[in-house]
């Protein structure tokens, strides 16, 4: 195996290319957008497991230096701001360089792309993948500009609505809408009128009708996000409503909650209020077919409530590259990759769905009272018994030789 074509230059694509390059396999990334930070959302968190995978590839220092700050715990409060619980994620007990960080998504993508390029990876922007053909000896990708590219394998790192997945397996299930819309924005330091959050802790508020989270960055900027229950809306309908109307709608959702929330929302540019649906893809029957395989959200999207999508995509990249390096055929490599990854990501997808389900509000005061009571107990139990170490402490030994997969 000498050459891999990777569709998608988001998070998993450039990392998979860097890992393959290190494994002695040439990898070229094809990204539809015209640059690494184009048309993407506000921010996300990278957990110790994802950071450790980046460290293996020599990409960690650049990522940490790029507009990131630690987020090692969550303080949960009710709509009135009264504390329900504090959940450290445990990463402050580990090596400082692997503490969970919040990072601007554009900065993360640019940094991953630049670091991969410094390591010899070629990334071609403005290349929208539209189809592929496969022969016994290789695969050819087709792009909207009429060009083609040939390689030994084709890897779909093309996200939640993956065109590679649709073509590889037309019967694959579509991502499931979780019933929540998400928006994320930030308020400039000079416009932030709320008291800063403490240390490296995000404050998350179970409001009357919706869920809100925010954290003050060391720069003084406040990063926030909101989740609220809503019927699924097609992209065009979301856009048609207009940014000002969305801002008004969201302000109304939090009108009965702590004034800090409305202060932050009011100080935010209306352009930040256009929501995205929260989707997951709990279990995809086929992760690969022939010379084509999927990674990251294309294979197993987890809800944003898990805070793990980006980290899992990076883990996939490392495992997939090691399998392609050590096994003689694409089919064997893809089977070994799936066997190493499926259980873990499906368990995290289920966990993300469970967390998201707690985020819906109620207009009934008795129901809200009971919810807050129940949450206090739940957070105490989680803090005591339900460690998330199995998620965050996962490490991949890239140097270890991958054994042949067990028969399917
Ligand atoms: C609102 C929100 C908040 C989130 N918060 C977190 C968080 O806190 N922590 C976390 O870990 N994860 C979070 N996630 C999930 C995380 O963003 C994804 O899991 C992660 O981006 C997946 O990486 P990926 O490389 O698989 O896909 P993506 O990052 O989506 O990259 C896919 C790339 O493929 C490109 N592409 C698509 N179609 C084509 C085509 N036809 N041709 C060429 N290129 C194409 C896209 O332009 C894109 O650049 C969040 C997601 C959302 C929506």
UniProtKB/TrEMBL annotation:
Instruction: List UniProt keywords, sorted A-Z.
Output: Monooxygenase, Oxidoreductase
Q: Which residues form the FAD-binding domain?
A: 2-349
Where on the tree of life does the source sit, at the highest rank? Bacteria
The record's GO molecular-function terms, alphabetically, read: FAD binding; monooxygenase activity
Listed InterPro entries: FAD-bd, FAD-dep_Monooxygenase_BioMet, FAD/NAD-bd_sf
**Which Pfam families did the record assign?**
FAD_binding_3 (PF01494)
Alphabetized PANTHER family for the sequence: MONOOXYGENASE, PUTATIVE (AFU_ORTHOLOGUE AFUA_6G14510)-RELATED
Can you name this protein?
2-polyprenyl-6-methoxyphenol hydroxylase-like FAD-dependent oxidoreductase
Organism field: Nocardiopsis metallicus
